[in-house]
Amino acid sequence: MKILSVASEVYPLIKTGGLADVAGALPPALARRGIETRVLMPGYGPVMARLEGARSQVVFEYDALLGVPARLVSARLDGLDLILIDAPSLYHRSGGPYVDAAGIDHGDNWHRFGALSRAGADICAGIIEGFRPDVVHAHDWQAGLVPAYLRYSGISCPSVMTIHNIAFQGQFSAAVLGGLYLPPHAMALDGVEYHGGVGFLKAGLANASAITTVSPTYAEEIRTPAFGMGLDGLINARAPVLRGIVNGIDTGVWDPATDPILPATFSADDLEGRRANRRALEERFRLDHDDEPLFVVISRLTHQKGIDLLAETTGDLVAEGAKLAVLGTGDPALENAFAGAAARHAGRVGVVIGYDEQLAHTMQGGADGILIPSRFEPCGLTQLYGLRYGAVPIVARTGGLADTVIDANTAALNAGVATGVQFLPVDAAGLRHAIRQAVRLFRQPGTWDGLRVNGMRSDVSWDRSAALYADLYKSLIPVASGHHA
To answer: What share of the chain in percent tops pLDDT 90?
Structure first.
C-alpha cells in the first residue's frame, strides 16, 4: 500500500506545533506495518538547504504550478521519504512557514498552500513515474484543497482529511478562486465556498472520502457549536465518515532512558536520574532548591491553552508550597503576567519566554507535574511527553487530554491505574482545585511515584494509532476500485 501524506510542516525539518510531530512520526510507524508513505511538503528555504549532500532528484517539472515555475524534488532526509515543492517565489521567505518576520500572515498563503494541494492532487494522478498513491492523507487547512482538486479534476483517489485544530480553517476571499485554477462551479455549498469566500479546511471536509481528528473525544466535541467553530453542521452531516484516532509520539526521540539532552537518564524501574534533572531545572529557572512539588508549563501562552487561568491561580499554587516553571511565548499580556509573577514570587516562579526544544526535554524529565489547563485540546502532545518522562499531567477534561490521562479518582487509585489529574469545569476554580489535589497526592508517600510509573509504563507510541490508520486506508481502497459501494 502506498500513501501520499500532504503537510505544511514536518518534524524535524520544520515545526511550529503538533502537526509537524504527527507528520514526521506517523510514516515510520506505518512503515513498520509495510505501508510506504511519501510526504509532500513545501520546499522552504531552510529545508532545501538541507539537500546539500543528501540523495535527491527532480521527479517532475512544472512550467506553471498555479502560475508559478516549480519542481518536485524527491529526497530522503531524517528517515523520511519526501517530495519537496521547489518554488522559491512561494516558499523562500523570512519568518516562519505561515507568517513573516513581524508575525503577520503572508498575504499569499492561499497561493502557497493552494499550490501544495494542487501538487498533491497531481501526484495522485500519477505525474511521478513509479509512484501513484493508493490513498492521499491531507493534514489541516493547508492541505485542505487536495480533496477538492481531486474532485474537480476528475482524479480517482481516496482521500483522508485530518483536523489537527479546527480553529485554524484557512479562509480567504472569493477573489482567489481564479488564482487557484478552480472552476466557477466549485464556489458551491458542497464545494469550496464558505461564508462567501474560499474555505480550505471546509473544502477538505466536504470532499474527503474520510475525516479523522486527533482524539475520539475531540471528534465528538467538534460536532457541537461550542467546539465546532462554525463547521459543526458540516461535520454532523459527514459524521458517518468521521473518526477520532489519538496521536502518539515518537518514542525513539522521546525516551528518558536514552535521551542525550537530559542531564541524567532514568527509567520507570530507576527514577534516580530525575533528581539531577530537577536540580538543573531549578538552576535554569532560578527556583529554590527544596523538595516541594515542582510544576511546569510548556505551551503557547494563549487563551485556548487556558494560560490566563494559570496566571490567575499562580499565587494559589505558591501558597500551597509548590513551585512553577513556565516555558512559552504568545499573548504579550500573558507573557507580562508571568514575568510579574516571577518577580513577586522569586524562587517559587520562574519564566523563560520563547521556545527551546532542549529545555522542554529537561522540564519533562525533571518536573513533578505538568499543567495543561486547555479550554480545548484536539489531542495534545505535551501530556504524552509528560507521561513518558514521569511528569504527572494535571489536565483539563477535554479532547485528547481526557482520552490519554487516567484521573486519580478513588476508584482509579484503588485499582492502581491512575496516571494524572483531570479537572472540570475548565475555569480558575477548577484549576485551583486540581492544583490542591495534586499537591495533596504528592505529599502521600508512594502515591505520586505510583502515578509517575503508571504513566511511564503506558503505551504512548504510534503503534496502535498507526494500526487504526492502516485499517482506515485499507477500507477506502476498494471504494476507489469500485469493488463495493
So the answer is: 95
